[in-house]
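Exercise 7.
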Amino acid sequence: MLDGRYSLRSHTCGAITKAVVGEQVRLAGWVAKRRDHGGLIFLDLRDRSGIVQCVFDPDESGAAFVTAEQVRPEWVVLLDGAVRKRPAGTENPNMVTGEVEVVITKATVLNRAETPPFEIEAGIDTDELTRLKWRYLDIRRPEVLAALQLRDRVTQRFRRALEHRGFMEVETPILTKSTPEGARDFIVPSRLNPGKFYALPQSPQLFKQLLMVGGIERYYQIARCFRDEDLRADRQPEFTQVDIEMSFVEQDDVLQMMEDVMREVLHEAGVDVPMPLRRLTYSEAMERYGSDRPDTRFGLELADVSDVFAASEFKVFAGALAAGGAIKALNAKGAGDWSRGRIDALNQAAIDAGAKGLAWVAFTGTGEVKSPVVKFFTDDEMAALKTTLAVEPGDLVCMVADARSLANEVLGALRLRLADELELPREGHELLWVVDFPMFKFDDEEKRWAANHHPFTRPFDEHVEMVESDPGAVLSYAYDLVMDGFEIGGGTLRMHDPDLQKRVLRTIGLSDEEASTQFGFLLEALSFGAPPHGGIALGLDRLVMLLSGASSIRDVIAFPKTSSGGDPLTGAPDAVGLRQLRDVHLKVD
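Solution. The predicted structure, written as tokens, is:
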């Protein structure tokens, strides 16, 4: 808590309550508002702790009254005065300090301020680029300050909760070796090693495994991470993870520990979630929600209607089933009376998501059935469809027939779009685990298997023998923590057997020589008695975004980048001089 110690002031603005009525105080801060009521001047003084009303009375304030006539918003001032109760009827119940005011007897201007480019108050309608250009002014606004204060409380609670459970905070390198981890590295040229480069870490993954080999046993770090990838609302090129690793554990140990820590962290933010958390397998999440990070606060679950149309004469459905695919559907309750234009937009969205098209049946509120494909359905198929999806008048049934994974993904995307358009309530917060992820995924572009999470994930013990023979069937000890439709954390048990690690690297296309070049230090470490270990990393920015109700992680980062990776405040990234380029042995083409 901010207090008046170690500073020019005796109290902070937020500490001026009826408990200090009658006391002489010295305050320092920014002028939030100035109101001249003729005989009296009122200044709302703001610091990080809050706002307090200060009164300048020509009979009591003396020279300070003259100063108050000159000051303007955002000037920095030092004020002395006495605390008194506000006159009856002038109290402000919406302010912690609303029962009192300070009668100023001395005022010193510490610094003047130019007129700000936007109002320093809550709820302003100013474009984000302008706010980011003057981010230091934006931070003075109450909602930005509140988000940073929440971030601080959450971070400190993580530290206390993990320390209480025997975790040790250890820093890992920022300048490290480039290794394939799923995104592009930011690279840094080395002046002392011409033609060679460091990489900024996408995560501390390899180093935290080395710490387990080193006997740390329980490690954590509030870690800065860097990924050169296309940005969106919940991504930044530099971000913060709560990085955690444990030795001598199985999956349930990691998940139980994380639930206990999250209970404390969420409570700190005023959120209480029932524990233990629900667990969905990856397969179940995809089948029911079309996403491995499902928002389960609303319905619109997917259903498999392949059996309904097993003998269908509709060529699209029959062809998909003959090719080993599936017919998946969802019932958009309340969309049955939508216009053809709105439904066509859904069809285009399905095509954009990779489907060949969307089959739909609208059951209007008057009982009429509209559809371009219903003519291909038998009465029995229609009856079974209505029963399976609990169809009522006013419903819109959407169906995709394709490879099962694609049908799920397309309807998963439509599910979120429909939830927005139907304005389905998504109140509160809901957390769950998604577990049992596939170990590998096939890269159609490179025609090879790739790691689904990262290449250090441990396969199910009973699936180890299929690593080479049937990679697509191998499941892994991988788990994601999902909150409100966002992945806020992900982790795995790691391979501690160097021979198994080498087998997995071969399966994803790395020769022993390539594996040694890229991961030789890890493979060597695993050969010196590595304990069974596993962990998790949580996205601190994303978690605070959800807890604060912000729409972007930029809102909870002190100095964020724009969606194009730029910093309007400093002008980064920017060109550098030829001398600097020569020093690091580079030329710009």
